[in-house]
Amino acid sequence: MRLFTDATIITNDAEDRVIEGGCIGVEDETITYVGLPESAPPAVEERISLPHRVILPGQILAHTHLYSFLARGLSPSRAPADFVDVLEHLWWRLDQAMDLEDVYWSAMGGALSALLCGTTTIIDHHASPSCIGGSLDQIARALGHIGIRGLLSYEITDRHGHRGALEGVEENLRGFALAAQRPGWLAARTGLHASFTLDDRTLDTVAERCSKGVHVHVAEDAADVSRTRERYGEEILPRLVRRGLLTAESILVHGVHLSGPDLTAIARADAFLVHNPRSNMNNGVGAADLAACAKEGVRLALGTDGMGSDPVPEMMAAMLLLRHEHRDPSAGWNLVKDMYCKGNPALASRAFGLTLGRLEVGAAADLVVRRYEPPTPLTADNWWGHQLFGLGDAPVDRVVAGGRELVRGGEPVELDAGRIWSACRDRARGLWARW
Fold first, then answer.
1. Which of 36-40, 268-272, 293-297, 423-427 is the least confident region?
2. C-alpha angle with apex 213: 357 to 199, nearest 5 degrees?
3. Average of per-residue pLDDT across 2-19
4. Residue 238: in which H helix or E strand, if any?
5. Rounded mean pLDDT of 202-214?
6. How far is it, in rounded angstroms, from Cα 60 to Cα 99?
7. What digits encode the pLDDT tens for the residues 175-194?
8. Which among 93, 171, 214, 238 would be 20 to 30 A from 12, CA to CA?
């Protein structure tokens, strides 16, 4: 057993403990001990002392787009008029310009960026309509090289014709096959873009051939609601419900313009709704009514929607957005904590079949170690305040995923980060030229 000791441990388990001067024992890929050193098992092969450090569970990112990593610094040729303009003149041009090498290096860069900020599990939503077949293989290969967990899904859409949609169906089936080869490290869901770009016959095919657990944008912008109604004569959620596509395995994203009955349907299905506050603000689409979601019993989680690989800034953004929207300086404190600290682990644990996001015996040995000297007492009652106002910004010292130390002293242990960043820049130049 390896023992990480002499640290402050924030367990995020059912007891939500803070253990000062505590230690964590790891054997193979699993946590075997959490507590004080004097009670630790005697059979310790390696003891790693971490004074002035805080150990937390590896971070979980509940929704992102790794392919967007190579878009950093890229701007549309004109200012977008609305959200659909953003899609048509930025993201849909970018994803169509990508080739398989771009897919691989965007995933490498995005996953390395995630690793260096302490993220050990990513739930990805991919699109590359000019190279659909084999795209999830590239993402799986990149995640394997970086050493973190990833959920795969390909974004099925009819915006390039029904043939492209069917290719997307096949790629999602490939994603499930890839996940079966690396259980615990890869998982899969059936990716769907958004209702307004999905014809009825495509949804029928998905319902017939794919897993009923879908990963889909829902009501991100009012245009999704209105265009779905105009094109298909039906609302977004009923289209999914009627085909059996809203299940406990489903991951719904955004939900800014969902109705009360929609929230009831999501809660009844025990599906997850992933909030992405910075993306919603950036795109000017509005703010999800998290208070209504919580009141209805909707299971909430937190993502970035491709705006970085670190969920920490989203925590503060989610709380501030709630307070701004409700004009209430007390709003969001516990809701956002529950969304990230309970929702993200529950979503990831369900998807991967492991206990993730918690430091407890039997959980996956995914840890992030931050260099943090608390300027005030750090206790079980106030650690969330430290997380929001200091701990979350503290430098990452070490990252462990599945018991394997991937980052030490803030740097990758086995990877040449400089080579990866250089390759990403080269791929971005070529991609931008085609864009």
1. 36-40
2. 135
3. 97
4. helix 236-242
5. 95
6. 28
7. 999 999 999 999 999 999 99
8. 214
CATH number of this structure's domain 2-57+355-412: 2.30.40.10
Please state which architecture CATH assigns to domain 59-352: Alpha-Beta Barrel (3.20)
Collect all residues with Cβ–Cβ distance below 8 Å to 433 and sequence separation of at least 6.
none
- pLDDT tens per residue across span 254-311: 999 999 999 999 999 999 999 999 999 999 999 999 999 999 999 999 999 999 999 9
Give the C-alpha distances (Å, rounded to integers) separating 186 from 5, 230, 274, 341, 423.
30, 38, 20, 21, 24
Q: What is the distance between the alpha carbons of residues 153 and 233, in angstroms, rounded to a whole number?
A: 27
Specify whether the CB–CB gap between 56 and 368 falls below 8 A: yes
Closest by CA to 55, choosing from 388, 358, 262, is 358
Of 60, 43, 64, the residue nearest 1 (C-alpha)? 43
The C-alpha atoms of residue 207 and residue 84 are separated, in whole angstroms, by 27
Q: Please, how many CA atoms are within 13 Å of residue 268, restricted to the half-sphere of its CB? A: 10
Mean pLDDT of all residues in the chain? 97
Q: Which residue ranges does the chain devote to CATH 3.20.20.140?
A: 59-352
Q: Indicate whether 89 pLDDT > 90.
A: no
Pinpoint the residues of the chain covered by CATH 2.30.40.10. Answer: 2-57+355-412
